[in-house]
Amino acid sequence: MNMPNFYQHYCPGRIIAGYDALKKIPSLMDRLGCKTAMVVTDKGVVAAGLIKHVEAAFEGADCSIAHVFDESPPDSSNIASNKLAGLFKGYKCDLFLAVGGGSALDTAKGANIVISQKSDDLLNIQGAENIEADLLPTIAVPTTAGTGSEVTKAAVIYNEEKKVKMLFSADKLYPTMAVLDPKMSATVPPKITAATGLDALTHSIEAFINLQKNPIDDAYAVAAIELIAKYIVRATENGASDMEARFGMANAALMAGAAFSNSMVGIVHSLAHACGAVCHVPHGLANGILLPWSLEYNLPRVAEYIGQLCEPLGCEQTGSDPLEQARLTIRAIRDLEERLNGVCGLPLRLKDAGVSGDKLPMVARVAVNDGCLMYNPLEVGYEDALRVLRNAF
Amino acid sequence: MLELTRFEKTMISARKFPVWRRMETKAKRVYLAMALRTFGAAFEAVTASSKECENELSQWEEGRRFALGVEPSGPYITLEKKGRKIRMIGTGLKEPVLSIVFKNLDSAMMVYTTYMGVVQATAENRAVIRGDNGKAMEVIRVLEIIMTYLLPGFILRKNFRTAPTLSAPQYLVMLRIYVSLVPSLVKTFF
Questions:
Q1: Which pLDDT score, from 0 to 100, does residue B19 have?
Q2: What is the DSSP letter of A99?
Q3: Domain A190-392, second-level architecture
Q4: DSSP state, A224?
Q5: Dihedral angle at the C-alpha atoms of A232, A236, A237, A239, nearest 10 degrees?
Q6: Considering only CB atoms, which residues of chain B are within 8 Å of chain A?
Q7: Tell me, what DSSP letter sits at residue A173?
Q8: Phi/psi at A7 (nearest 5 deg)?
């Protein structure tokens, strides 16, 4: 790679990973000087019985769970975050214990921003790199292997008034600790396993090709891609019976999160955020569909970097033409997605994911105002965004 | 091995003296204050003439007020959308709903001396956005149109991800902008 003139890498959280890692939570809280946790989750996680595992970890401990907030919506929202902030203060909690996918984790981050900035509305604190006050401790327990939010400085929160997804990013947003326990993602249905896994793949690839790519994030990204190539189909196919694959994907998602938290993401995420905001397409699914088309868009600028991902994805390098290598990488991603389609019926086109053709112009308009575009290697205007969307439709 | 030029070695030696450091900071602040005022004038001149800016601004709400500047203590300018163009309200922060500010003088110098583009500076975490990120993207797009009309091609090729090219009619607009920039600059500075 060409060395960047300047970069920063920051990934401050402690990571506890392994079978029964959940049992460490009370001692971790003790280490943080916290006694009362607010569990932030969603109804799906509660219905799957995963909160029982968390509660069991607190048996006989000095600290306790004050309340289980299970109202995180599928797309974490400003209203949910504001409500959670009020409850957190009401129950006199001193720690967020976020258990769930990206939505639950980001809802906790949103509420944490509201409390620490002494506000009552998240919308008053929009921006990038604008949070200066320390946030309250957060322990993140992901139940899907995709978002990476357990180790990122980003939170994506749906603005219910304007119907757009807002990106918050600031160094203070890193969770204090991340706990990876494979049993927490064991029961995720196949289609969600595949979609969230493709989300992690997108994080790694966008981090690897973006404007702010750097040697440290590259190492995380490549390691994550290798794990995803090895485990995503197994995890989707075998479910709870293949805990090695589950744990492999959990680690991949975490490393992809560490990579993109510094290098950030680009056009795929801008378009996926807009697809989510306008057409409510699940984030991981939108990322998966848009990834190969967006890489084709970026080919003229970063063919060399895309080509370098051929081997981590498990295909052999042939020849030395960067463009040819890059096309092989994109082919490998499409092959992987087709295998996932065969295993669980994962949609490969936007039209199969609930997007109607007449919504594409609106999606493109929303996408060009998404902050992630700042990090994309090529400029993206409205017409460019619309072209990629039409290709992926 | 990184080799320093004689000039760089001299500058490093000079920075050992507190008086020099104070003078350097003061000089940067003065330069940035002038650069920001020039940009304020450029916002007025370009948005009054450019069709691309008019298209962008048609999506903005009337009276949107935003600021550009440097943290922690300025300089800043505040601008506002009025009708189909942007006008500079003045220096300092005048209740903007959105501000795009650099974290320190050095980062701001990199951009306002055209050593680095706005996008690269943002990607390197040199800027802070306070307010709606979507609106910030809209402001940055207008800022890039302004730079397209004002800066020479070799700087645009260096600082833009996709170097913009101007058509023949756009060169005529550019001429008109340069002419109208003079009164805007006079109004801004005096």
A1: 86
A2: E
A3: Up-down Bundle (1.20)
A4: H
A5: 120
A6: 103, 119-120, 122-125, 127-138, 140-141, 160-162
A7: G
A8: -160, 160
Alpha carbons A14 and A67: distance in angstroms, whole number = 24
The string over A128-146, giving b where at least 16 C-beta atoms fall within 10 Å of a residue's C-beta and e elsewhere, is bbbbeeebbbbbbbbbbbb
pLDDT tens digit sequence for A136-146: 999 999 999 99
Q: What pLDDT does A128 receive? A: 83
Among B119, B120, B130, select the one facing A130 at the smallest CB separation.
Answer: B130
pLDDT of A245 above 90:
yes
Residues of B in contact with A129 (CB under 8 A): 103, 125, 127-129
Q: Which of B71, B110, B126, B133 to mutate to test the interface with A (most CBs of A within 10 A)?
A: B133
Interface contact A130-B129, CB threshold 8 A:
yes
- According to DSSP, residue A379 is labeled -
8 Å CB contact of A379 and B161: yes
Chain A residues lying within 8 Å of B111, measured CB to CB: none
Give the pLDDT score at B2. Answer: 61
**What percent of chain B lies above the pLDDT cut of 90?**
51
Query: pLDDT class for A88, splitting at 50, 70, 90?
Result: very high
pLDDT of residue B185: 79
Measured in angstroms, the CA of A367 and the nearest CA of chain B are apart by 9
On the question of pLDDT at A348 being above 60, the answer is: yes
Contact A129 B128 (CB under 8 A): yes
Segments making up each domain of chain A, as ranges? 14-184, 190-392
| Beta carbons within 8 Å of B19's beta carbon, 6+ residues apart | none
B189 Cα to chain A: minimum distance (Å): 31
pLDDT at A34: 96
3-class DSSP state of A147: coil
Alpha carbons A248 and A229: distance in angstroms, whole number: 10
Please give the structure tokens belonging to residue A109: 């981050």
- Chain A residues with CB under 8 Å of B133 CB are 126-128, 166-167, 369-371
Find chain A residues with C-beta within 8 A of B123's C-beta: 210-212, 264, 374-375
How far is the alpha carbon of B68 from chain A, nearest alpha carbon, in Å? 14
Query: How is residue A271 written in tokens?
Result: 């378009």
Domain A14-184 grouped into CATH 3.90.249.10: no
Predicted TM-score of the model (pTM)? 0.91
Asked if the Cβ–Cβ distance from B131 to A127 is below 8 Å, we say yes
Is A128 within 8 Å of B128 when comparing Cβ atoms?
Answer: yes
Is the pLDDT confidence value at A304 over 80?
A: yes
Contacts of A25 (CB under 8 A, 6+ apart): A54, A57, A58, A97, A139, A141, A179
